[in-house]
Amino acid sequence: MDFEPTGDLLTDFQSAIDTQTVISMEYTDRYGDYTTRNVAPLEIRGDRVYCWDLDKNGLRLFILGRIGNFTVMDQTFDKESFS
């Protein structure tokens, strides 16, 4: 189930990208299963955000409308280390 992303979500994710700050978020996958992900957000493109998933150690694409509660963490990351 997709939701309309709020301005706070877009603003906070863009801020986390700019400051290279980790986000912990609830995500609903295409099957309707909820997971908690710890991610390093890299780029927003349209209604999607590219992130390095710190738990799965890989690049992932998340649909903004499937992101639920999220927290901008105190942890930072180096974007270059994921290239």
Could you describe the 3D structure shown?
The longest helix is centred in the N-terminal third of the chain and has 13 residues, at 7-19. The chain is globular and about 30 Å long. By secondary structure, it is of the alpha+beta class. The relative contact order is 0.28. The chain has one helix at residues 7-19; strands at 21-28, 34-45, 48-53, 58-63, 67-76. It has a single domain, classed as SH3 type barrels. It has one helix and five strands, in the order αβββββ. The model has no long low-confidence stretch (mean pLDDT 91).
Strand content: over 45%
The domain tally reads 1
> pLDDT average, as an integer?
91
Q: Order of strands across the biggest sheet? A: 4-3-2-1-5
Name of the CATH architecture: Roll
In total, how many beta strands? 5
Question: Strand pairing plus helix content: what structural class?
Answer: alpha+beta
Unreliable segments (pLDDT under 50, ≥5 consecutive)? none
What are the main properties of this structure?
SH3 type barrels, 5 strands, alpha+beta, globular, 83 residues
Secondary structure elements and pairings:
Elements (H helix, E strand, L loop, with lengths): L6 H13 L1 E8 L5 E12 L2 E6 L4 E6 L3 E10 L7
Antiparallel strand pairs: 1-2, 1-5, 2-3, 3-4
